[in-house]
Write a structure and sequence with these properties.
Shape: globular
Bound molecules: zinc ion
Number of domains: 3
């Protein structure tokens, strides 16, 4: 496809106005979309045929270091977009530290963002022998194995109400009307606020845990079980939990701390104090969702069920063989840690020539930070998270 661009440039004036590297990035996206598609077909899944989402592109990317773009005097210069001596005004929310590798311009809602990926040295924290187990709580955001809880922030519930209200209002308007456009704008603004708050909460929580503990044990995520949640509050919390996991893993890696994911089977049922297994007809007798307390008939241990699960998760992680843990740190040739690496879940990580697959999403391993996932294109976490 790259070879066809020079010819197309002569035929179509709209293509001639686009920077060559941006065009090449588009062909990369198409290639990634199709290779992910065929990969899933081969794996016996039923993927949707690759398509352009919505009414066109919401982003474009300059994949080279300082090729086609420049940050100058608080503004952004983009080749073929800004006039030779003018810049787009930009509000830098954080100084650019390290070597800028790529620049991606994205539209989110009604706003435009420039997202830079930078290469940085890892900032290792001093070694720590402290360890903690985490369990996604039923009532709280998570339970820690030391008996404490991290509560769901109150804004989750507030946002849920605001979303429902704006959604109802939008549903009442006629398609294509001026009111509809207005309602859409309100709705997208609320979604943006929810996203930002969730982002903030997740980053702060993960940072605190990584600073405090040398080893953090979590349960392996089973994404299939998390789909189809109809309760809005629960789905906001679920989305935050999986985002938390990703952020935690990245922060831990660049601080040289360990996140170990363990198989969560029976962690709710078994006793964390004596290992008692409540055997039932098939496997273990399951606790009901309403059983908030763990009481052991053998050793009389009595504690919150989520705390019990968190301790079990920690114990499982401590017993994970060190040689299995080593697979955690996958580094590419440039020393940039790859995105979305989930520790100990080695089978979920597959490599095919230059593509790295994590479950159903694929990530380009070279200097381009674009990720393709079933929900659409997004910048690789590592790129956005670097330096945070
Ligand atoms: Zn017990």
């Amino acid at each position: 496809m790259n070879g066809a661009f020079p010819k197309w440039r002569k035929e179509f004036s709209e293509i001639a106005d686009v920077h060559s590297q941006v065009l090449q990035n588009i062909s990369l996206r198409v290639e990634l979309a199709f290779s992910a598609f065929f990969h899933r077909v081969k794996a016996g899944e039923k993927p949707g045929f690759p398509r352009v989402k919505g009414d066109g592109y919401d982003s474009f990317c300059f994949p080279g270091a300082s090729v086609g773009y420049a940050v100058e005097g608080g503004g952004l210069r983009l080749s073929k977009i800004t006039e030779p001596n003018s810049r787009i005004k930009m509000r830098l929310h954080r100084p650019l530290v390290g070597k800028v590798k790529t620049c991606c311009v994205r539209r989110i809602g009604c706003k435009w963002f420039a997202c830079f990926s930078v290469e940085q040295e890892d900032d290792f924290l001093p070694k720590s022998d402290e360890a903690i187990g985490l369990d996604a709580g039923l009532n709280s955001f998570m339970a820690l194995s030391d008996g404490t809880f991290i509560e769901n922030p109150r804004f989750f519930r507030k946002d849920e109400k605001a979303l429902a209200k704006a959604g109802r209002k939008q549903a009442k308007t006629k398609k294509g009307s001026k009111e509809r456009r207005k309602a859409n704008k309100v709705l997208s603004r609320i979604h943006e606020r929810v996203r930002n708050r969730r982002h903030n909460f997740v980053h702060q929580t993960a940072r605190r845990l990584v600073n405090e503990y040398g080893m953090i044990a979590v349960e392996k995520l089973v994404v299939k079980n998390m789909r189809g949640t109809h309760c809005l509050a629960k789905s906001i919390s679920d989305a935050s939990w999986s985002m938390f996991r990703t952020v935690l893993t990245h922060k831990a890696e660049s601080a040289n701390r360990e996140v170990i994911a363990v198989n969560p089977a029976y962690t709710s049922q078994d006793c964390s104090a004596c290992g008692y297994r409540p055997d039932g007809v098939a496997g273990r007798t399951k606790k009901k969702l309403s059983d908030r307390w763990h009481f052991c008939p053998k050793c009389s241990a009595s504690l919150d069920r989520d705390t019990n699960a968190a301790i079990n998760i920690l114990n499982l992680a401590v017993n994970t063989k060190p040689q299995n843990r080593k697979q955690n740190h996958k580094q590419n040739h440039n020393g940039i840690t790859l995105c979305q690496v989930t520790p100990v879940e080695a089978p979920a990580f597959r490599q095919e020539s230059n593509h790295y697959f994590f479950g159903s999403s694929a990530c380009w391993a070279s200097s381009s930070p674009w990720c393709f996932s079933p929900v659409g294109w997004g910048i690789c976490w590592k790129a956005c998270l670097t330096g945070s």
